Amino acid sequence: MAKKQLITKVWIEEGCIVCDACETAAPEVFEVMDDTCVIRPDALNAEFTKPRSEGIVDAAEECPVDVIKFDSDTVEVADEAPTEPAAAPATETQTAPSPAKKAPAAEPKKAAPQKAPASVGKTKAPSAGEPDPSIQALLEAATSRGGNAGIMRNSTEVPTSAQGWRATDVDNLPPDARQAKVVEAAQKAKKQSALHRRDFVSNSAVAIGWTAFGVGTGISIGPAFGRFMMPNVLEEPDPRIRVGKITRYMEMAPGDVNEDYKPQGIWMIRDEDRIAALNIICTHLGCIPNWQPNDRKFKCPCHGSGYYSDGINFEGPTPRPLERFKITIKDGIVIVDKSKKYQYELGQWDQPGSYILV
Length: 358
Ligand code: FES
Description:
This protein has nine helices and 16 strands. It is α+β, with helices and mostly antiparallel strands. The protein folds into two domains: about 1-80 and about 135-200, Alpha-Beta Plaits, CATH 3.30.70; about 240-355, 3-layer Sandwich (Rieske Iron-sulfur Protein).
């Protein structure tokens, strides 16, 4: 009797490098996916793995990263050379294949043909010219359909087309068709997952784009919208300008012009008994005249209009005198209010506020 190792359980640990060696050695047991290898569903059954023990052992030995593990039973099987002493069945667990366990002469590859464990002890050694029952059992299990015999036996029941096995319940399918259906379902789920992921990425990109558009729009129009909602009345410059103590203007001689506040649009002038604040804008077309002290006049460079020191026009195209601003005094400080103007031609220069008596 020879000893035979029958795989009762096989699994794959982490570290698969997807080399395809296992699927090449035992395609009914192993399936190499994109990123790892898996045990096919049928191979989770001991009755399925036992007849495929040699392929599983080969796959484990050829695995370059040694991630294929299995449990096995060692049984005695009929041997053509009866000189080998029979040994009692023994059970062992092998978690890592090693050449030492395959080397002995009594190992499956070099032993006489064997049969599945269920028939161990009941199978007689075949006579010359007759098929060995253990070899027959292995041959029948050589394909997941039970070999050609199985195919022939079940030919009326096995769906012969893809449409056939797709329409048949998986429990009623032979292993190959069941495996094909499972693999197809897995591939379909994988494609759907990839589509969902792509849709998610696409939708995320659209969402990010709209978010960026919203943020950009908010940044660009936000300040303008804020100003629209909050009128900028406080940013207008105060029309009231403090132009200094009244004493400095009391010291001026009649006809003098103070240009210190020309940048603010004001000439401070001194008349006989009063001071006033002239608007520096030419009343012709809005240019700014220049004070010419030697000539004691304002002369507009644009069209030649001329004004006396009190603002009365006397030459050029301008139709009327310069305007005057409202002027007040508080605590000895003269304050000019540019929001209020007085026009000579309207008789407003005599109105209170158009001058300060000194
Ligand atoms: Fe001053 Fe025309 S704008 S003269």
